[in-house]
Design goal:
Blueprint: H1 2-21, H2 39-43, H3 47-56, H4 76-90, H5 101-116, H6 123-126, H7 136-151, H8 155-159
Helix pairs in contact: 5-7
């Protein structure tokens, strides 16, 4: 009987804790995007590549993430916000125009590497966003796009 009572106390405490942490909300404010600085506006990929980037990359790597319904539930919301903050810190397609040529070149190299090594998009993201998972053909298409962009002559003209 004592074990049953302890289980009830622990369960009640966990429910109360869960309800209390719901009051700690994440900031879902998005920053406006200047098309003069946005990657897609600047490099003008074909429609298919632009769509892949928007679907598989922009939620974490831009100033315009789309927060799913479950981002309202702590502690999942904290984890999602951390992913978005980390992703946009490392690469933010919304401010591509502010990057130096050297940084753009490096970021393109990282994009290629991360896709080729199946590190992006992250499996924790594609688990809940099935449409963001890249097919083998889409991976090849993105890698070829990033390589061509990186290798084009006159990188400043093509990357700005």
């Amino acid at each position: 009987m004592k074990k049953h009572l302890n289980f009830k106390k622990i369960s009640l405490s966990l429910v109360i804790l869960f309800l209390l942490i719901q009051s700690i909300r994440i900031d879902k404010t998005t920053q406006p995007v200047d098309d003069k600085k946005d990657f897609i506006s600047l490099v003008v990929p074909n429609q298919e590549v632009a769509s892949i980037l928007k679907t598989s990359c922009y939620d974490c790597h831009s100033n315009q993430p789309i927060y799913p319904w479950y981002s309202n539930i702590a502690p999942v919301s904290w984890w999602i916000k951390n992913h978005i903050n980390e992703g946009s810190h490392h690469l933010n397609f919304s401010v591509w125009g502010d990057y130096s040529d050297k940084r753009k070149h490096h970021k393109l190299e990282e994009c290629i590497e991360m896709i080729e090594e199946d590190e992006m998009p992250m499996s924790s993201y594609t688990l809940m966003h099935k449409n963001a998972a890249l097919s083998d053909a889409q991976k090849v298409q993105l890698v070829e796009f990033f390589k061509a962009l990186k290798n084009e002559a006159g990188t400043q003209e093509n990357l700005n």
